[in-house]
């Protein structure tokens, strides 16, 4: 029976009844700190989405605006212009986008969805919006076609009918092409869904309709009947016209292409099987896979291009998907890395009745976008400038840094530019539409992503753009293949053994530390020089802790033999001795590492170069626990990492382990928990669950776990989960590296008392700082603060030798000093404030070139620490000059130092738990930013912990979000919204206000190219393109009204009035001014034409007047009905009062002595 906890109930009531934090004021004047941040400084909104569109389904291109649109299976729209101009939109229904059609050069896009709805998007604003929607209720949409410079959209359905929509008003026309009228009257079978619609390039009144069954119909729109019908035995997938309108080509399900004459009946004039084997006896080729799409593009100077996807023979098992380019007698087969979703041929002209002159092919793959240059031999691809390679290997972790040093991005770019591949097309990227934003945000931003294959990527994220700077491959440090005898005994993360788990980066010193899933830690230095490392420095650490009531650790078995020290490793001077080793395997495999460090020389290019590798080794055939926390400090020269067994502090300058303790040992004799030994248990979970790119949503069981338990749960899929007994602290003489393994997995609970008896306590966070190590201290000391999964914060004092040569030789003293504070839930974040409430950054060492010779001046430079700004006023007690900020899954606390008095406390959540918490700089102060599992994003003031922002933004739907969500300075945040896309958000009011200016513009006023010249003879004999008055044919007067039950019109939120109000900024005003100027020019042109017509009409009247005047050579007396005689003469003619146009007026108006007759 569950114990009733009255304290929990009271805490919940306090949280509900008041939004103010529960405050405890210490004996000092803590309230004197003036907090500058207020709630009006915060506002939450999405900024931009980067990466490849997840699960793409359709594509379209505007050849005049040069904009590419991609639709996805989740109803998302991604629009791409020139590099740096991107836009993300989302259909509310979330249905898959089956087709996209641009209104070419009009700033609009039509999208057709799988839920049988059609939408019109306005692209003339920075954030596109839906103008109109049409929801079909009785028929399923299968294909759409919008002719160039037409406002009538053809919609084919699953029933085989074609409906016509006016895209201006988004209303249905009464003109319908019924399937039973299109096919032969004698045919009894249904032709199937409509798979293609297009009008004849030379005659807009002729429409070709392709049905799935293999029937193609040429429909005469004026006579409303079929002119010709073409029948083939195989199903049709696509149809394409020759630009002269006399031939068309079809692709079929048996891998064949058929070419037909428009006026030809019966059989096609040519049948081609591009990938079929041609039998010698003249029989029909063997069937191949379906050709899903074909395009037929002509050139003036040579043979036409026939481009197709699919059609491979069935015997090519395992062959990658291909795009085939047939040009004259040559056939090029271009292999792709992923299945082809769609492709488009980019041509010089938007007019379908002119020579197409294709110059590139855009190929949309399931996980990539490829653009092929058709103008160069060998068809090279263009170098893709978009950040579409985020998912090149699945992302496992992320870090975000805003307001970095200005020299970081140039330094990373200079070494990353040498990594670029060769062999790309020399031409410029063809998708070049839109304009960049005019925002003023200029501080540098860097995003770091860790991946499943061991790569680490650095991205320039400044000014809401994203560009890859540098890629580091950590797997180069290890041997690729494993010995056969090891493979049978260890199944540690076989799928992704090099996956990055945690990253720690010091931007000032450019030191990088990464922890992998195979229980390894790699420390990197940044260098601009190439170097060859003969032997990779390695430390092997045996981190396992066992607590047993009946057996002491020294009697524990065969793993007591100390490993041989690594050559050059310094002896231990404080705390337990370490055992660095290069190879130390006992007969039972007790010291085996999960990965083997390479023994051959390693050539390291400029960039990040490995300085030290630390590996946790197996003990007694049991694998080490995954690393759950990591931190480095460049000023101290230390790296610390922890897991569910304990923690280890490594001095990477002297290449030695300073401390290797179980979590219980950090408490000493003051352990507040009653720990119980556990019975042995072995479990094995399937591997590969960490970061599959096709992962779905997490189960409800995953959603209710804390991030710490989920983190450990994720990585047990990569190492065997073992159970270990905990016992008392070993004596100082015993081998401390011989601790038994201690796996960590705790249940979700909001009460600390329910986990007090939990035997396993994992290390969840670290923080280096210069502060008061013990209660009552009056001097600052370098310290390491340790947070655990049971909500405890422990302090470790560090005694460092002086900088310079003494730091290389003298030992670092590490001394645990006890517990600072306890909170509910796992400790997520720690930070320190000075007496004014400003954030105290950790000490750091400025970057220097590590590969300069030993006698160089730079090499002998004294390593300086950054001074910590602690300057208490004379009226304030020296003992109260710092504040420790601690945030757990449930609470936040502020503790005054060195008195260690809690002065502020806030219960953030009772019913959920915090996934990510960061202490961040804002333009007006410092705050705590939290992301909760129930979807809330919250900020709290410091040091008062007042709630400033609480927005229900995004409930946790899968572990990808929990693994990658991170806050950074100046109100920026990001997370991986899909396996291939990064979503950036802001919680800063300033950024939200400036976002409109920062966003790029998709639509820019561009003049439509001139129509092709018909030529003298074509104009004389009528051989040119035939136009069609669609308004007269499809309008309500001629076609009547459509059935109201067929489709429902839904006005969109992005109407013209809303668009004009939303579009703002100098660029938008200029664009609108240019558009208005163009429209005014068009109206002036029309007025000039009408004036000319009126002048011609006036000349005609003048001629008639002269004729009349010649007939009346003599004057006459005209007698009026009243008998009044008026002496008149025909002087001139006047304007008629009727409202007819001048060209249509038939009245002759004569002005006689000032009177009109």
UniProtKB/TrEMBL annotation:
Residues 1055-1115 form the V-SNARE coiled-coil homology domain. One of its GO terms (cellular component) is plasma membrane. Signal peptide: none annotated. InterPro entries: Lethal2_giant (IPR000664), Lgl_C_dom (IPR013905), LLGL2 (IPR013577), V_SNARE_CC (IPR042855), WD40/YVTN_repeat-like_dom_sf (IPR015943), WD40_repeat_dom_sf (IPR036322), WD40_rpt (IPR001680). Residues 549-593, 669-692 are annotated as: Disordered. WD repeats lie at residues 229-263. It is found in: Cell membrane; Cytoplasm. Residues 570-587 have a biased composition (Low complexity). GO terms for molecular function: GTPase activator activity; myosin II binding; syntaxin binding. Keywords: Cell membrane, Coiled coil, Cytoplasm, Exocytosis, Membrane, Phosphoprotein, Protein transport, Repeat, Transport, WD repeat. GO terms for biological process: exocytosis; Golgi to plasma membrane transport; protein transport. It is a peripheral membrane protein. Transmembrane segments: none annotated. Belongs to the WD repeat L(2)GL family. This is Syntaxin-binding protein 5-like. The gene is STXBP5.
């Amino acid at each position: 029976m569950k114990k009733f906890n009255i304290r929990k109930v009271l805490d919940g009531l306090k949280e509900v009844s008041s939004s103010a934090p529960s405050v405890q004021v210490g004996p000092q004047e803590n309230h004197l700190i003036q907090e500058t941040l207020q709630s009006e400084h915060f506002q939450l909104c999405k900024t931009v989405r980067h990466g490849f569109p997840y699960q793409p389904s359709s594509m379209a291109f505007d050849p005049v605006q040069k904009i590419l649109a991609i639709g996805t299976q989740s109803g998302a729209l991604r629009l791409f212009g020139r590099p740096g101009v991107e836009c993300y939109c989302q259909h509310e229904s979330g249905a898959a986008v089956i087709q996209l059609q641009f209104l070419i050069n009009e700033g609009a896009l039509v999208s057709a969805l799988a839920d049988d709805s059609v939408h019109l998007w306005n692209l003339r604003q920075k954030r596109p919006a839906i103008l109109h929607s049409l929801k079909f209720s009785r028929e399923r949409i299968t294909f759409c076609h919008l002719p160039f410079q037409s406002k009538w959209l053809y919609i084919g359905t699953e029933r085989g009918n074609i409906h016509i929509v006016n895209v201006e008003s988004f209303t249905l026309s009464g003109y319908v092409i019924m399937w039973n009228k299109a096919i032969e009257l004698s045919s009894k079978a249904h032709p199937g869904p409509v798979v293609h619609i297009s009008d004849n390039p030379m005659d807009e009144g002729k429409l070709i309709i392709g049905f799935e069954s293999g029937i193609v119909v040429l429909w005469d729109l004026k006579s409303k009947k079929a002119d010709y019908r073409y029948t083939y035995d195989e199903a049709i997938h696509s149809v394409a016209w020759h630009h002269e309108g006399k031939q068309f080509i079809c692709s079929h399900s048996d891998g064949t292409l058929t070419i037909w004459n428009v006026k030809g009946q019966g059989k096609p004039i040519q049948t081609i099987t591009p990938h079929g084997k041609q039998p010698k006896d003249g029989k029909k080729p063997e069937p191949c896979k379906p050709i899903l799409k074909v395009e037929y593009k002509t050139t003036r100077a040579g043979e036409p291009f026939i481009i197709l996807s699919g059609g491979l023979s069935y015997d090519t098992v395992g062959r990658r998907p291909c795009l085939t380019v047939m040009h004259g007698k040559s056939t090029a087969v271009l292999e792709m890395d992923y299945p082809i979703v769609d492709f488009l041929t980019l041509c010089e002209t938007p007019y379908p009745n002119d020579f197409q002159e294709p110059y590139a092919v855009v190929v949309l793959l399931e996980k990539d976008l490829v653009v092929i240059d058709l103008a160069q031999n060998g068809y090279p691809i263009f170098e893709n400038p978009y950040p579409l390679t985020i998912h090149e290997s699945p992302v496992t972790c992320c870090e975000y840094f805003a307001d970095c040093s200005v020299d970081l991005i140039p330094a990373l770019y200079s070494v990353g530019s040498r990594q670029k591949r060769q062999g790309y097309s020399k031409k410029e990227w063809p998708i070049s539409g839109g304009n960049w934003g005019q925002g003023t945000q200029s501080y540098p931003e860097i995003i770091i992503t860790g991946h499943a294959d061991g790569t680490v990527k650095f991205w320039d994220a400044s000014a809401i753009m994203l560009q890859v700077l540098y890629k580091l491959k950590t797997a180069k440090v290890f041997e690729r293949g494993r010995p056969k005898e090891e493979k049978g005994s260890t199944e540690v993360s076989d799928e992704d053994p090099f996956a990055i788990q945690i990253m720690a980066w010091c931007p000032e010193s450019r030191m990088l530390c990464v922890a992998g899933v195979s229980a390894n830690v790699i420390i990197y230095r940044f260098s601009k020089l190439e170097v060859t490392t003969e032997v990779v420095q390695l430390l092997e650490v045996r981190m396992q802790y066992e607590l047993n009531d009946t057996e002491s650790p020294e009697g524990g078995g065969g793993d007591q033999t100390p490993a041989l020290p690594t050559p050059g490793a310094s002896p231990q001077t404080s705390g337990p001795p370490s055992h660095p080793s290069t190879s130390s395997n006992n007969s039972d495999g007790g010291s085996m590492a999960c990965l083997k460090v390479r023994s051959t020389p390693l050539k390291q290019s400029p960039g990040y170069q490995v300085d030290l590798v630390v590996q946790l080794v197996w003990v007694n055939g049991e694998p080490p626990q995954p690393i759950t926390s990591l931190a480095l400090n460049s000023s101290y020269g230390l790296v610390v990492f922890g897991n569910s067994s304990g923690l280890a502090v490594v001095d990477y300058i002297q290449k030695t382990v300073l401390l290797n303790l179980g979590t219980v040992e950090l408490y000493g004799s003051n352990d507040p928990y009653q720990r119980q030994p556990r019975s042995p248990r072995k479990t094995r979970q399937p591997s590969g669950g960490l970061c599959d790119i096709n992962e779905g949503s997490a189960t409800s069981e995953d959603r209710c776990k804390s991030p710490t338990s989920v983190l450990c749960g994720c990585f047990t899929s990569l190492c065997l989960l073992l159970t270990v007994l905990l016992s008392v602290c070993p004596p100082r003489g015993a081998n401390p590296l011989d601790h038994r393994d201690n796996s960590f997995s705790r249940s979700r609970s909001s009460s600390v008392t329910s986990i007090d008896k939990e035997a396993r306590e994992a290390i969840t966070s670290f923080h280096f700082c210069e502060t008061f190590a013990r209660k009552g201290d009056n001097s600052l000391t370098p310290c390491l603060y340790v947070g655990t999964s049971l909500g405890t914060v422990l302090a470790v004092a560090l005694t460092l030798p002086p900088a310079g040569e003494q730091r290389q030789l003298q030992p670092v003293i590490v001394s645990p000093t006890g517990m600072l504070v306890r909170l509910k839930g796992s400790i997520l974040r720690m930070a320190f404030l000075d007496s004014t409430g400003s954030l105290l950054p950790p000490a750091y060492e400025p970057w220097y070139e590590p590969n300069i010779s030993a006698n160089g001046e730079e090499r002998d430079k004294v390593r300086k620490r950054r001074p910590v700004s602690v300057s208490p006023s004379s009226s304030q007690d020296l003992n109260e000059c710092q504040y420790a900020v601690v945030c757990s899954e449930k609470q936040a606390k502020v503790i005054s130092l060195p008195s260690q008095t809690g002065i502020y406390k806030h219960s953030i959540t009772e019913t959920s738990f915090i996934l990510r918490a960061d202490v961040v700089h804002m333009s007006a102060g410092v705050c705590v930013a939290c992301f909760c599992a129930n979807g809330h994003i919250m900020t709290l003031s410091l040091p008062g912990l007042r709630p400033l922002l609480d927005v229900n933004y995004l409930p946790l739907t899968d572990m990808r979000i929990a693994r990658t969500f991170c806050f950074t300075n100046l109100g920026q945040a990001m997370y991986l919204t899909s396996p291939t896309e990064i979503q950036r958000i802001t919680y800063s009011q300033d950024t939200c206000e400036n976002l409109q200016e920062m966003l790029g513009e998709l639509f820019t006023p561009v003049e439509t190219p001139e129509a092709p010249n018909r030529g003298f003879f074509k104009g004389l004999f009528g051989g040119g393109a035939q136009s069609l008055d669609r308004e007269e044919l499809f309008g309500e007067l001629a076609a009547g009204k459509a059935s109201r039950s067929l489709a429902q019109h839904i006005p969109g939120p992005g109407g013209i009035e809303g668009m004009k109000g939303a579009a703002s900024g100098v660029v938008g005003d200029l664009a609108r001014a240019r558009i208005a100027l163009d429209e005014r020019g068009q109206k002036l042109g029309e007025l000039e034409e009408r004036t000319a017509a009126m002048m011609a009409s006036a000349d005609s009247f003048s001629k008639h007047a002269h004729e009349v005047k010649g007939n009346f050579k003599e004057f006459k007396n005209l007698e009026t009905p009243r008998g009044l005689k008026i002496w008149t003469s025909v002087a001139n003619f006047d304007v008629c009062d009727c409202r007819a146009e001048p060209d249509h007026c038939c009245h002759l108006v004569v002005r006689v002595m000032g009177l009109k007759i």
